[in-house]
Each structure stands twice: as C-alpha cells, then as structure tokens.
C-alpha cells in the first residue's frame, strides 16, 4: 500500500511538473502561432489581391480598346525601344529603373484607369513591373484611380509579328501621331 501511495505521489508530481513546465514553456507559443498564421494569411491575401488585379490581354483585344481614353500602354523594355519601334501612344518606363519611377508613371497615367504593360515578349519584365505597380498601389493609401493592371500577351514582338501598327518616333512619351501599319 505504501508503495502504491508513493508511486501515485510520484506520478502526480511528474504530471503536475510536466503541466507547469508545459504552460510556462509554451505560454507564448500559441500567440506566436497565431501571429505567424495571421501574417501569412495577410501577405497571402495581399499577394492574391496583387495577382488578382493583373490580367492578360491579347494584341487584338488591345487594338480594339486602344483608342479609348482610359487606357495607357506602358512599355517596360530597356534599350530595345529606341531601335525596335513601339506601340503608338505608349509610355516608356524601362524595367531596370521601373521601381523608382512608379510615382512618375502614376503621374503620366493620370486619368487612366487601365494600364497595359508589355516588354519584348511579356514573359519576365512586363509581368514583373505590373506586379510591382500592383504592390505599390496595394501599399499606398492614395487612390490614384488605376483599376485594371494588364499585361499584353506575347509583348511587343508578338504585336509586331502579327502585323499590328508600330510607331518609330523618338519621343519618350509617344503621342501616337506617326502610327503606321507595319510593312
Ligand atoms: Zn511613337
């Protein structure tokens, strides 16, 4: 009997000790789980929002929408723009300096609610800059009126290869006045 009693005491001691160790040790743990989870949830939602606001547009869709005054085409190619020509009326914001120039892009696109990004193929630079703008807008408190961020499928090369009009003016912000069908 004595033996069982001491065994019982010993076991309850172990259990209590474990319990208090557990609560002391793990007290901050549920909070950290919660905050990690919350943080992940938040950033995922922000990413999702940023991703959701970027859609793709084909060359023919863009051609039919292009004359609307609410659309700005943003060319983010680097040097190629100067010798390959460009889509008439497009703005030029080279990808290598894009991040720093977002405020001036917003200024240049004032009054436009749809921005269509492209680079040569719209595989890397175009979508990357579009995402950067979406992230910038998600973090910014100001509503600058940009509702749609799009990427032109197949980029400028696809546009040109389909025989769509290419402008060869040398202005940084093309006014689209020298638009001519590709020969
Ligand atoms: Zn031009």
TrEMBL record:
The keyword RNA-binding does not apply. It comes from the Eukaryota. InterPro entries: Rhodanese-like_dom, Rhodanese-like_dom_sf. Its EC number is 1.20.4.1. One of its GO terms (cellular component) is nucleus. Keywords: Oxidoreductase. One of its GO terms (molecular function) is arsenate reductase (glutaredoxin) activity. It catalyses: [glutaredoxin]-dithiol + arsenate + glutathione + H(+) = glutathionyl-S-S-[glutaredoxin] + arsenite + H2O. PROSITE patterns: RHODANESE_3. It is an enzyme of class 1 (oxidoreductase). It holds the Pfam family Rhodanese. This is arsenate reductase (glutathione/glutaredoxin). The lineage of its organism: Eukaryota, Viridiplantae, Streptophyta, Embryophyta, Tracheophyta.
